[in-house]
Structure formats: structure tokens, C-alpha cells
Amino acid sequence: MNVRIEDVSPVEKKLIVEIPWATVADRLGVAYRELGKGVALKGFRKGKAPRSVLEQIYAPRVHAEVAYQLVRESFFSANQQHKLGAVAEPRVEQGGQIKRGEPFAFAAIIEIKGDIVVDGWQGLAIERRRLVVEEAEVVKALEALRKEHTELVPIEDRTVTQLGDVVILHVRGTIGEHPIDQPRFGVDLDDPEREPVPGLRAALTGVPLDTKDLVIDVEIPADHADENLRGRHAILTVSVVEARAKIVPALDDDFAKDTGKGDTIDAVRAATRADLEAREASIIRSEARQAALRALVKKFQIPVASSLVDRAVEMQYNRLRQMIGMPPDREGTGLTSDLRDKMRPSGTDEVRGQLLLEGIADAEQIAVSDDELMVHVGQAAKARNVPPARLRAEWDRDGRLDSARWSLRQDKVLDLLVEKATITDVDKLSEPAAGEGGMLGVGAGGPIATAPVEHGHEGHVHGPDCDH
Hints:
single chain, about 475 residues, alpha+beta, Alpha-Beta Plaits, Trigger factor, domain 2, Chitinase A, domain 3, 5-stranded antiparallel β-sheet, 4-stranded antiparallel β-sheet, about 45% helix, extended, disordered C terminus
């Protein structure tokens, strides 16, 4: 086999291959022998049809299969021997057809990651929010804690409902054109934010505890927060099934002991503030990471392979579906060409960011030790309430340990970017911050699989779409 490789672009190579006819003829012979074993043709016993007859019927199919195998084998061999770091299957642009008596020749484009050299990444200019937790946030958190410890008790000292009660209703009727029949429907008369239908709390306040068949007729405003209810007419017939009064604990030392957060209310207030500050610090850290990554991508506009961008767009699309509670679109039927074009810029930045972080990690010799990986597995196991050894075995079997190590390595590089950045502390960011991972996708489930080459071959990269 004669192989020649030419440079096309920083992320493309041209693979030019010529395979002698003798090799092609041997492969065709093997293919026809295997085909003949299972083919039953009229006039011949099974497995006894001569090759000349098989060629008349099956030559196009056999030639196509053998040509495909020769291209793939040549590609894997060249990728391994020349350390190309291919990120997609070859794209045959010339030749690739079998012609009797002639060498099998083809030219194909191979996409690669390319050489990633990131010089001068230190000192990126970024903003970082100051850590501020207002006292109002502490008060709100304490109120939420009181709600968690609120008791619901039977009403014994009165005969009508009042604000603060929780009533269980049997609700029948319609909201717009939709019929309703709920035998046990709870309404908190003290929670306007969760009022199912506007006016329901007011209509149920001050009614007898044994109310039956109360008709409630309301027009839902056109600007209501729930777009499914906006502008609809609701006619509901309700009966009180059960009513309970809420006993909300006072903010005192007895309440503090019940929470398990401290022996005094001051201790609980301090612990609550510490929790809020820790959560805010984590958010600020994520924002700073994303700001550093955006600055890095903006500074180093390295070329990226289009196949990696396509894969990133597909992963972004399915992440968005997951965020809104939709199942993955494995066939990609919803990812239209227009939508794909709109998502390509963010997909390109996502890939570019990942490659740049890998380049810095390689240059700085950043690695994740087995101990660090096991700490991460332990934290994930604790969150899932499963034994760490069991989760590790599961991740090892699914190839997710490699993805977890990759993500931890990326996190280390992001922290290094922030550590070496030129930081301006501000009260409010001038550029809105994305969540952890953001549109650049780092930390959002693992690496873009950067090599389709077979498992076990040099250049294979484990990732979420790795099939082993």
C-alpha cells in the first residue's frame, strides 16, 4: 500500500492511497467466498453457486463493501502510523471505486485537532463580582426554614377558614375549554405565589370548614404569569375535604435546636448566612471561570474542525432539550439546517474553548491524580446515596471515569486561568454570566468526542458518545 499525506489546512490533511490490484483481488475473493456460503440461487445447491454467477448478481454490492473496508483500514493505519489525531471519518473526494485489474486508489480529507499552541494566556482581563449577601436574603432563608418546620394541625377553635390555613378541596368544573375533576386539590391560603387560579384564595377565605359545592367564577387576567391560564374563564365547583391550620415556629432558641443548625437563634442565623455566602462564592467562582474562558476564546481564534463543531451543536441541542424536560433527539430530526446554522457560532466557541484548555493543560503538565478522581466519585456517590465502589465500577464500565477525569482536568485549567488573570472586582458584571458550563459547554457532561477511531487504537478519545 502506498500512502501519501498532504497538508490542506491547520485542521485538515489529505490522505492519498494506492493499493495494488493483487491485494484488492484477494479481498474480493474472500468476500465472494463468504457470500457464496450463505446464498441459495435457483439451479445451484446452497453454497455451490460459482463466482461468475455471484458476480453477475452481487458485484455492485460486494465492490462497495470491499471498497469501504479498504478505505477504513487505510485510514486507521495512516492515523495510527502518522499520529494524525483524526477527529472524524475520512471524506473521500476522489476515486474509491474498484476497477478490475487496476490499483484501488482514492484521495480523502481527514479532519484533525491540529497543533494547539497557546502562548500568552496569562493575564486575561476579567471581571469578578464582589461577594455580598444582604441581610434581607438571610431573613428570607430563615423564613423558608420556618416553613420547613411548620406543623399542620386540625382546626378546633373556629368554624371558618382564614389566611394561613391549608385546605384540601374536591374541585370540578372548567378552565377555558379544559374540564377539571380533582378529588384532592391542596390550596395554601397564605401563599399568593402558588395560587393555582387568581381569586381562589380570596374565595376560600372565611368560608365554613364544611363547605360543599361552592361555585367560584373568575376571569383570569390576560397578563397572568402562567401562559396556559392567561385570558381564560374559570368556573369551578369546590367542596372542602379537609382544612388544617399552620403552626409556624417562632424564631427562638427552641426553634434553633429543632433545625439542628445551632443551639441558639443567633447561631442558626450565622450558619444560614455562612451557607448563603458559600453558595454565592460558588456562583462567583463559576462566573469567573466562564469570563476567563470567554476571554481565552476571544484572544485565541484557533481554527477548529467542522465535524467537531457539528458534534458540539448536536450535544448543545440535546442539552437544551433536557433542560426543558424533553427526551434526547437521537435522530436529530428537530435540528433543522436553520437551527444548526444559528447554533454553529456557540458550537465553534465550545470546541475552541475545550481545545485551548487541553493545550494549556498539556503545556503546563496539569493532571488529575487517582486520589482526586476517587474524591470526585465519592462525592457523586454520596449525592446518589450509593456505595463509592459501586459507582466507580459503573462509571468504569460505561467509560465515564475518563470523562470525569477530563472534566476535573478542565476545571483545574479554568481555576489556573482565573488565578493568573487580571481581575477587576465589581458589584455587577458588565456582561451577563452563563451558568456552570455556559454556552461554551465546559463541564457540561464531558468532552466532545474528538476521535472516531476504534477503541484500542492510538488516537481514540473516550467521550459521552463513545459506544463501549
